[in-house]
Amino acid sequence: MVLSLILPCYNPQQGWERNIVSAYTTFCKQAGTQAELIIVFDGISAGVTSEQTAWLQQQLPQLQQLSYPENKGKGYAIRQGVAKASGDIIMYTDIDFPYTTESMQAIFTALNTGNCDVAVGVKDDNYYSHLPAIRRFISRCLQFMIRTFLAMPVTDTQCGLKGFRSHVKPLFLATTINRYLFDLEFIRNCFAIKKYTVQPVPVTLNEQVHFRKMNYSILFPEMLNFVRLLFKKPHE
């Protein structure tokens, strides 16, 4: 099985390029595979230099780097990477590899063994203990809304680690939300069309991860996106 790994990038933390090489190498070794790595630079980013991207390309010759000038959101960026992916299995996570490589391997194994079409990372209680109180409250509210209004068996849709087999690719590319709720749109569509098997996979946060300050201006637009999902018919 060929694996494609998508990393969206916008304003990464210092040392991001070296962290990618380390985490990617460790993951590939543990999973026993070589992954097609695709980084999507979602607009002009602070902390990203041409020297860093050149060094990264030298360390990982198989790397594909995509970019565009305007920041359009995580969902948009990942769709660009998925569109370029050629793997039998496609995974995506955040640029800082916030989850353990064992968690990434668990997602890969669930898909590689054919147990499911879509593997969804589900965060454990340790994750929420690291969150600032306001973000923890927002996360719990979203899960309540998903359970109440969408009646989905998986309510933790926002974990930044997911994967799917290549035949699910058209459904992912059919998502339209550009920012954070693209995950919810994708998983909701998987359940709504009743065509693909979805498996929740418990994942663990890396201890050294530092959460960024949340931009609360996104809350109202994302609330509108949630409401739109309630009335939007899913399609591939």
Provide the descriptors you would attach to this structure in a database record.
236 residues; alpha/beta; 7-stranded mixed β-sheet; 18% strand; globular
Spatially, the strands of the biggest sheet line up as: 3-2-1-4-6-5-7
Taking the sheet with the most strands, its summary is:
7 strands, mixed
Count of separate structural domains: 1
Q: How would you spell out the order of helices and strands?
A: EHEHEHEHEHHEHHEH
Measured between the Cα atoms of the first and last residue, the distance is: 24 Å
Radius of gyration: 17 Å
Using the coordinates above, name the CATH class: Alpha Beta
Low-confidence stretches: none
User: What is the CATH homology-level superfamily?
Assistant: Spore Coat Polysaccharide Biosynthesis Protein SpsA, Chain A
Shape: globular
Structure class? alpha/beta
User: What is the typical, i.e. mean, pLDDT?
Assistant: 91
